[in-house]
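Predicting holo structure, zinc ion bound.
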Amino acid sequence: MHVVYTPRYTADIGTHVFPTEKYNLIYQMLAGEKIIQKNDTIAPVRPSDDDLRAIVTEEYLDDLLHARLTARTYPSEMPVKQNIIDAQILCCGGSFQTAQHAMVSGGCYHIGGGFHHAFPEHAEGFCYLNDVVFAAAKMLKQGVDCIAVIDLDLHQGNGTAKFFENETRVFTFSMHQERLYPKKERSSLDIGLEIGIKDEEYLEKLERALDRIFNDVKPSLIIYLAGADPYIFDQLGNLCLTLEGLQKRDEAVIHRAFANRIPVAIVLGGGYAEDVHDTVEIHCNTARILHKTLISKIK
Ligand SMILES: [Zn+2]
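Done. Tokens:
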């Protein structure tokens, strides 16, 4: 299965709740299982500064290119360092390539991305640049007429929602914990979840939302943000999904996309489990499900 990945995503960010080592661990795990084979890895290509101007303001881009600590970069809650910013710039290219590849193969997996809290004029919540916005905007430019962003991270995709607020060709759906960071923007469809929600109720709500997306919106491309942080043992959230529940979540999205012949580009998003191996397992399960679905479709 093709994946988009570079070891450069594992940027050293010092002691931090965000486990950047997860990218490398996921890659190693999937390679060990032969889900990723020789020649399957697509290296992300860094977008030009001009390309980045499509999603960020001139002032903010200048801060990023100089790793400058300003009121615009400070809210990242990350060190303002060039290697970290560069990794997220690369990630924008990576998510775009994932979407492009999905259009050809039916599904593609980015071992990275999902920085959905970044805004055009400032960073926020570990996110400098919104790779989901970058990929969607580029795909619109390439002629894709309707894109659905299915954001199932624990946190609302506020940056994505705001950016596409007035863009009718992008349907933004976010299902997230309601009483939690961030300050909410308006997605095309928001489902705010109560604390403590378990698998069954979560999956019911998801199915209803997917009905609407597949029956009414009928997108030509899905960008699926498969966050690992709705997990019961996540340090940042209070949702109570199990590993099995998260697998069923992924199946719900991926199987329906394939049944409706809609390409699906998957990006990772957050994941802050007490044990990083749980985060890795959740993300790998998403890849395993995509891999299985791709194979059964080819047969
Ligand atoms: Zn999150």
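The chain has a mean pLDDT of 97.
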